[in-house]
Amino acid sequence: MKRLTKHPVLTFKRGKKIKFYFEGKELSAYEGETVAVALHANGIKNLRKTPKKERDQGFFCAIGKCSSCLMEVDGIPNVRTCITRVKEGMSVRRQRGRGEILD
Amino acid sequence: MNKASVVIIGGGIIGTSIAYHLCKNGITDIVLLEKDYLSAGSTGRCGGGIRQQWSERANVRLAMRSVELFQKYSEEIGLDIEYYQGGYLLLAFTDEGVELFESNVKLQQEEGLDVKLLTKKEIAEKFSFINTSGVKAAAFCSSDGHANPHLATMGYAKAAENLGANIMTRTKAIGIDVINNKIQGVNTDKGYIKTGLVINAAGGYSHEVGQMAGVDLPTESYRHQIFVTEPVEHIMDPLVISFENNFYIRQTKAGNFVMGQSDDDEKPSHNENPGWRFLIEMTTKMPKFFPFLKQMRVLRHWAGLYNMSPDALPIIDKSTTISDFYYAVGFSGHGFMLAPAVGEAMAEWIAYGKTRKVDISNLNIKRFAKGVTREKNVV
Amino acid sequence: MRYLTELHVLIAGGGPAGLAAAIEAGKSGLNVLVVDEGIEPGGQLVKQTHKFFGNENFYASVRGFDIAKELLKEISNMKNVEILTESTVIGIYDKGVPVLHRENDEVELLKPERIILATGASEKFLQFENNDLPGVYGAGAVQTLMNQYGILPGENILMIGSGNIGLIVSYQLEQAGANVKAIVEAADRIGGYEVHARKAKRLGIPMLLKHTIKKALGGNKVEGAVITEVDENWQMIAGKEKEFVVDTICIAAGLTPSVELVSQAGGNIRYIPELGGYVPERDNDMRTTASNVFVAGDVSGIEEATTAMIEGKIAGLNAAKDLSRKIDEKKLGNLKSQIENFRSGPTSQKVRQGLQKLGFTLKSESFTKNSDDNIEKYEGKKRPVIECPEPIPCNPCETSCPVGAITVGESINSIPTINYEKCTGCGICVSKCPGLAIFMIQELLDSEKAIIGIPYEFLPLPQKDESVYVLSRDGEILETGKITQVTNFGNKTPVVYVKINRGYIKTARHIKPVSHSKNDYVCRCEEITVEDVEKAIDEGYTDFEELRRYLRIAMGPCGGRTCRLNTLKILSKKTGIPVEKLDPGNFRPPSVPTTFKAISEGSEKNE
Asked: pLDDT of B224-283, one tens digit each?
């Protein structure tokens, strides 16, 4: 996914560059972005495999309503990544099935 | 932008290296002021050589640390700066010259530098493009080399910016506010910046910036000229210098030869315009040592400033009268090669109260009170 | 609650309706808390980069994200209004209203005296094979990624749906640099406003009517799509399939109101498809059947931001009235008639039908142009032609004209007319028109040429004397023309004037930069392409000398003779700074490469 730098109408003010982890791999993001956006910026569209049929899914609505973007964040499952801010050092993983609650 | 913890004046390799290393050590609330564009000053006009063959122990260490950091540069900063460790070949044409090299090489070897003396025969065998008549011996260090000073500056600046620093080009510092010997802020042509700490990395204008803070730095700027040839296939690995015959030459990654000399009759000035006589002298002299040059073409001729200190060694210190005013100035034509280690040292000094990796106390300003011995290994 | 002790009004939702309601309730002296789910408030406004229709009082010709800024600014000056973000009203109970603070995962039980639900709407999901593949996004999601966070969602997009959102988002995708391959619409006509459709058509985006999407192709993400024709009964016709290579499928199939909380509060809801789905039963004062609960905005029926704001104001004023605060009854009355006027035009027919089912009687009017403009009479004069094809509630052309040459009139839905005697040809209307439906024309009488001026919201902005492709209303290339002037009005819609053949004066309505291939060289010596230079400029090297140092432009044997000016032109185009204001860099001797021999031996002769 390409980060836009020039736009005829908008100016994008990005916050501080930070690091977070996706499936153990270090990625960079900007403060103020959501986890789903940060993943997209790093080319990651597939956010989960559905519990029953293991189909790949990304997000759909991006405003916290459709629950397509649920991922495990810092060990907590079923987090709506499209309305959750990405933070320095955050660990994001795709859930196994419905998400694991006991480690 | 109207306040910052640190303001750096100067957007050359020294200023940007300091900015990057400060950020690396956790100090990111920085503004760097550059009155033109990055590397517009001495950095962008220099020959790009990086050597460790110095005559004072402390300087050898500083240069060796710099080389360590240059080796890590592309991985750390993510930019290829054309760093090439093809060595430095210092030619000696007189017995005194040979003696000087012998004592230098001994000291440098004690510091662990991979330097050795070469006989005339060895020089001719290894470097067939040199006309060795008149050459007595040479000092050769294979880990010396060169790099692209523009890219190195831009790399540091971008890296610092990514970590939170604010790099302001086309912004000129016009005054430093001092009340009761404490810095209050820096006035620029784009507005005022409140700060308590200023670093003078202003290269050719280090004296003027010192005056803004009420600090008299013993630096003076002199014009030095330089030119490049058209590019050709790679034939020259090392940068070749002769102090006695007053020249240096190296071949860039793109294939151009860069070369220059010192002009003793230059008076202190900020003149950056090229002069015709230099070109005549160089085009007459150089082919004597490098015959292949006769048919090569001069492509571009320009000049830059050496910010000279009384002993031709850098002055890196903190003002004892005005606080907090740091300066890394007077590099006398050797700022680029030392910049990574200087940036690191300055950042450590500011962050932790003292340097950690190298000792730069020999480069303090108090040394001039004791009398001046000029560094001999300079062109 | 941070510091407000008594909570009078709780507003769920901080979009245009919620913020407008908060402003009115706050102005009446009530303590107001706005609870918004997003990371920043503003609702859908924050993602909207196009200029809104409507009238001056409701931010006509202002871009959505700017409207959000203004509303938030007004609220920031009100001590009795607070906005809570990243928080959700999770229910409405007898005991109170629990609010979830997502950041610290805490629930707070609040006891407001009145509740205004301005919870907006959510995307409709379309059913087709593999519609759950990553890369299938709602239009709102695309806007969030693109306009809020500056991430291009994909390179090649298929847009499903030709309502206003499908048309606008297609335009916005192209502005951001994506390629919209087609807009697919199942009906036999475009769903949105004609002006929005025209903006998309000009860009050459094919509109495929009577088509629907059959399936998304791809292993674990979208790699293509299959669409097919449908008959009058919306059934897919076999053998009429078309395949597209795309990486993103954007679904703009409409919104449906988010009425959960209305129902939880005990308010009645009813299924009215014209309004988007289930909507709350409510009266003229925006009060639901749950007496302490009001609604405003898309939750009460899918419409526009303007009507959302008016409804929000009505709800806010009524909440204040309920709590015995003195309100301006005249203002309330005006708001009600304003919204009725808005809804009286042909484009609001569906909404009127829906509202009628709820028991409202709304006036409808038909609108035609009041008089003929006589554009031909003024041949040779630089003047605007207004191609406003349908009556929409909108009048910034009238209010922005400095000499009063444009008339929409009392009824805001009317199609504007121009008095060419009064018109001075300034072009402000072209820039202000939210539909980008006004163009300047001028026949150059002593030649076979003419000049047209078009509103242009794309990068790179063309420069004077540049050659561009001149396009028809369908985005087809008519010819190449030269830019004669670019006028900036400070609102990000510059007007670009281009010289064309007179024969195209009625058909030329857009331009496109002449495109560069990967092998457009600027610097022959160092083999640097236009793309390389543009990329370096994008990275922040915007000084010629910086580009020179970074790329080695002008460092080759030609000394910049071939490349300097072209580099400066590219720099000028990308930065918008005219070439004459750029620093052209240093010129170094020797002006031709000269051998050592020539310099050294030549000088000896002269001594």
From this structure: 999 999 888 788 999 999 999 999 999 998 889 999 999 988 999 999 988 888 988 999
Is C49 in Cβ contact with A10 (below 8 Å)? yes
Pick the CATH number of B2-47+150-219+311-370 from 2.60.120.10, 3.40.50.300, 3.40.50.11540, 3.50.50.60: 3.50.50.60
For residue A43, give the CATH number of its domain.
Answer: 3.10.20.440
Residues B108 and B60 sit within 8 Å (Cβ to Cβ): yes
**What digits encode the pLDDT tens for the residues C454-495?**
999 998 888 888 889 999 988 888 888 899 999 998 888 999
Residue-wise DSSP of C184-198: EESSSS--S-HHHHH
Contacting partners of chain B (3+ CB pairs under 8 A):
A, C
Domain count, chain A: 1
- The domains of chain B are located at 2-47+150-219+311-370, 82-145+223-301
Looking at this predicted complex, what is its ipTM? 0.86
DSSP 3-state helix, strand, coil percentages of chain B (rounded to 5)?
35, 25, 40
Domain that holds residue A33: 18-96
User: What are the pLDDT digits (tens) for A25-40?
Assistant: 999 999 989 999 999 9
| Chain-chain contact of B274 with C600 (C-beta, under 8 angstroms) | no
Q: Quick check: C149 contacting A, CB < 8 Å?
A: yes
B302's enclosing H/E stretch is strand B297-308
CB within 8 Å of C247: residues ≥ 6 apart: C135, C154, C155, C156, C157, C221, C222, C223
In a domain, C213, yes or no: yes
CATH of domain B82-145+223-301: 3.30.9.10
Q: Of B61, B5, B69, B63, which is closest to residue B32 (Cα–Cα)?
A: B5
Residue C109 has phi, psi (to 5 degrees) of -95, 120
Strand order of the β-sheet with B198-200 is: B166-168, B30-33, B6-9, B198-200, B325-329, B315-318
- pLDDT score of C254 more than 90: no
